[in-house]
């Protein structure tokens, strides 16, 4: 099984899709059989999607004390696959003994699922099932995040409208969806997952759910722009997560997509619409978000 585990790295990407699917089933099947011998996550990156979570996942995975999940970056258990149960979830993580041997007993594992932050039930599920876990939230300029998310969904075929039309349709698309998810936890909302461009940028209300679930001392907010420019941002995160000081060779942007620039007037209008939300976020962060520095209408 050790050689099978090794195949879940880069060589897997070169395999035909049916072979990858078979490999995934085999690895997860073995993972479920050995679930009680596996590490539980010490921390979870819960989002926001299109806010640098792929970059952060790669940086954290390179830390000498961290062992990544066995199959993929995200497991999507606390939002989409919760009915599969805790043994299924635990089966995604590395076996404890080899991981601890490799790291001199310091092994920590984690996952990164970007929908957790926005899903209305994920925070309370995490707080109930992993009461000691730390939560990492990446935040980014909400207008740029929305524009990037639209491009991402459009390229993948989940969106057919242009950006301005899509955000105009967003309130209608999302109307009642959160209530329906709460009423029926098995319900998977296409609109909630794929068409929540502006709503996902209202970070404070989403972060507050995690603070309520696990406590403010275990919720760590990372400003994506500072992550790329200020080494201290990563140092502070490592310290909060109980990881030894370490500096990667570089923190490059991953999973970025090129697109045409946004209309200036539209951008200004959207930035104005986020002013109150950004003030609430600044209060949670204890500092002004990078994208609002020098913007006097946000700092009180």
TrEMBL record:
Q: Where is the signal peptide?
A: none
Q: What domain of life is recorded for the organism?
A: Bacteria
Q: Does the keyword Transport apply?
A: no
InterPro entries recorded for this chain?
NST/OST, P-loop_NTPase, Sulfotransferase_dom
Q: Which UniProt keywords apply?
A: Glycoprotein, Transferase
Q: Where is the Sulfotransferase domain?
A: 41-232
Q: Name one Pfam family in it.
A: Sulfotransfer_1
Molecular-function annotations in GO: sulfotransferase activity
Q: What is this protein called?
A: Sulfotransferase domain-containing protein
Q: Which organism is it from?
A: Tessaracoccus defluvii
